[in-house]
Amino acid sequence: EEVTEDFGKAYKAFLKRCKNFGASQTNHCLRWLNRLLYLAVDKEIIRVNPCEDLEYETKPGARHRYISREEFKKILSTPMYDKRMELARRAFIFSTLTGLAYVDIMLLHPHHIGTNADGRRYIRINRKKTKIEAFIPLHPIAERILSLYNTTDDEHPVFPLPNRDALWFEIHELGVIIGKEDNLSYHQSRHSFGTFLISSDIPIESIAKMMGHSNIRTTQGYARITDDKISRDMDKLMERRKEISAGEKKEDRE
User: Fold this and answer.
1) 248 occurs within a structural domain
2) 127: nearest Cα among 50, 12, 215, 6
3) pTM given for the model
4) Cβ partners under 8 Å of residue 40, min gap 6
5) CA pair distance 101, 230, nearest whole angstrom
6) Whole-angstrom distance, CA of residue 95 vs CA of residue 108
7) Separation of alpha carbons 72 and 76, rounded Å
8) Does residue 76 share a domain with residue 108?
9) Which of 133, 158, 176, 208 allows an S-S link to 219, with CB 3.0 to 4.6 Å?
């Protein structure tokens, strides 16, 4: 009888205020509470689940972390003498120039690499996460990295990458070496790819195709985090205002 809707609300408040849980942890606990209560209903211990309509916490929007162009230039100009570290550096650069996630590069085989009628090389691969095809024209630096690895034997992947944990450690170390203030993670390379393209005024539909997004709203998320693009848009606005103002003054003189 003590398990009421008010009990559920009090439990939720306890998780947030006393345990200092975020949205994900709070919702996880609420789900387990509901499972327990529905089990009690099945066993006829209680008649109904009193917390059935208890609202879950709204999760904040995903925050894409990416590297700056200056940080990317540092990574490009800092070769590693340790073989594993150098492989990690090249893989990170390749992902930054192609937008492929770790799992997609693990699955990348020579048959995914093609050449169009103009001699331009590209990657065509279905992304593991979305099952959507990504079509990526290759940057010259990405082509150069490919030439160092397997592009002929389709029995083996292109890159001999280590497991995720080992690669993540190497990428973290790379961030320390280039003096990055916060932690460098492998997935920042994919986010940086999207951010750099948005900053270069590439149409968002083309970016969605290159990144293999199933929903263009995912791609639009990158437009919200590009400080450079915001600054350039403001510069363009100021230029237009100057041109309009100059035109108005000219008309007044005439």
Assistant:
1) no
2) 215
3) 0.66
4) 46, 49
5) 26
6) 12
7) 6
8) yes
9) 208
In a domain, 146, yes or no: yes
83 and 42 fall within a common domain: no
Please indicate, yes or no, whether residues 51 and 171 belong to a single structural domain of this protein. no
User: Do residue 97 and residue 221 come from a single domain?
Assistant: yes
CA–CA gap between residue 81 and residue 61 (Å, rounded): 39
With beta carbons less than 8 A apart as the criterion, state whether 29 and 21 touch.
yes
pLDDT tens figures, 77-125:
999 999 999 999 999 999 999 999 999 999 999 999 999 888 899 999 9
**Domain ranges, residue 20:** 1-60
> Shortest CA distance to 101 belongs to which of 191, 235, 3?
191
- Whole-angstrom distance, CA of residue 40 vs CA of residue 26: 21
In CATH, what number is assigned to the domain containing residue 225?
1.10.443.10
- 127 occurs within a structural domain: yes
Residues 115 and 146: their CA atoms lie apart, in Å, by 14
Q: Is residue 240 part of a domain?
A: no
pLDDT digits (tens, 9 = 90+) for 1-59: 788 889 999 999 999 899 888 888 899 999 999 999 999 999 999 989 999 888 888 87
